[in-house]
Amino acid sequence: MAVPKKKTSKAKRNQRSATWKGKAAIAAKRAMSIGKSVLSGRAQGFVYPVSDTDEAEA
Q1: Any domain includes 52
Q2: 28 lies in a domain?
């Protein structure tokens, strides 16, 4: 016979939410860092292709 599961406690729910939000914050921080390095021209850790047509249009 099917039995309903126990309710997840608020503490566990908040802990999972904090972990999820923390991972998102780290990803956002890394994205901002990469964006800043690309704009400043100091990007060394990855290849950022720049086509000549984009420069001509700007």
Answers
A1: no
A2: yes
CA 58, CA 44: separation in Å to the nearest integer? Answer: 24
Distances 39 to 3, 27, 43 between C-alpha atoms, Å: 57, 18, 8
Predicted confidence (pLDDT) per residue in 16-35, tens digit? 999 999 999 999 999 998 88
How far is it between the farthest Cα atoms of the chain? 71
Please tell me the pTM assigned to this model.
0.57
Give the model's pLDDT for residue 29.
Answer: 95
Of residues 27, 31, 58, 56, the one with CA closest to residue 46: 31
